[in-house]
Recover the amino acids of this structure.
């Protein structure tokens, strides 16, 4: 491999970074457009009645897209993941997946506590686990930028090897952000199975909160309701559900 002043592997690395930043600015602009008129559930007519129960707990897609796009821009500005060698990047990805696994386990423990009718004081009983969960979230957030940038780079390289790029760069750039996917409140008529509303709500609602919401909407509007998890939503940067399955994650990033 030859190396001359300002050039590595046949290209000008600083110029390459600047080009990537320009592309990310374009991606940010696209994300804002998607946020305003994108592929997210929109409610009109009778379904607005349902939203009287959900407005304070609805998932904020525009804000999520803006924050995710801005995070991607910051990553590109400092040159992630190229600041570190491949070994360091690999270690960060492994630690990120390990932290995510521990976080998922903590969240399952919390759900079990809130679902147990024998536990009266659920807040006190879950206090320690919730504190551990918060620490894991902070740890995960600190690892996510480099882990995501590393996987984005690997997917981009794989796409380039297949010749599916423009001048070696996928258009639009491969950008994703991992998050807890929203829940969906599905509402149907009682007399016939027919969806009349699909409202995305916060993934942080406890099981008790979900049941209470279902009962409120059912009792007030004489409908059938069910809160369910969703697999994903078509936004950009791609929203990827938290997982420790690296193969599934890479497939999802590449597919979207």
């Amino acid at each position: 491999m030859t190396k001359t002043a300002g050039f590595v592997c046949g290209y000008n690395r600083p110029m390459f970074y600047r080009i990537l930043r320009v592309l990310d600015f374009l991606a940010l602009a696209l994300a804002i457009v998607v946020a305003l008129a994108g592929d997210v559930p929109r409610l009109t007519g009778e379904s607005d009645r349902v939203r009287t129960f959900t407005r304070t707990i609805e998932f904020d897609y525009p804000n999520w897209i803006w924050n995710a796009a801005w995070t991607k821009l910051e990553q590109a500005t400092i040159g992630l993941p190229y600041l570190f060698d491949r070994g360091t990047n690999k270690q960060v990805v492994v630690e990120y997946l390990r932290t995510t696994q521990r976080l998922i386990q903590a969240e399952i423990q919390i759900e079990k506590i809130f679902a147990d009718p024998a536990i009266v004081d659920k807040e006190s009983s879950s206090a320690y686990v919730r504190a551990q969960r918060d620490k894991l979230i902070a740890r995960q957030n600190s690892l996510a930028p480099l882990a995501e940038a590393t996987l984005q780079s690997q997917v981009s390289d794989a796409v380039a090897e297949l010749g599916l790029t423009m001048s070696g760069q996928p258009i639009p750039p491969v950008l994703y952000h991992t998050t807890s996917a929203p829940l969906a409140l599905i509402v149907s008529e009682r007399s016939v199975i027919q969806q009349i509303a699909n409202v995305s709500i916060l993934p942080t609602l406890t099981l008790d909160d979900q049941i209470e919401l279902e009962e409120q909407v059912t009792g007030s509007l004489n409908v059938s309701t069910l809160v369910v998890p969703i697999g994903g939503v078509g936004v950009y940067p791609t929203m990827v559900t938290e997982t420790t399955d690296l193969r599934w994650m890479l497939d999802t990033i590449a597919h979207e």
User: Anything to note?
Assistant: The first strand starts at residue 3 and ends at 4.
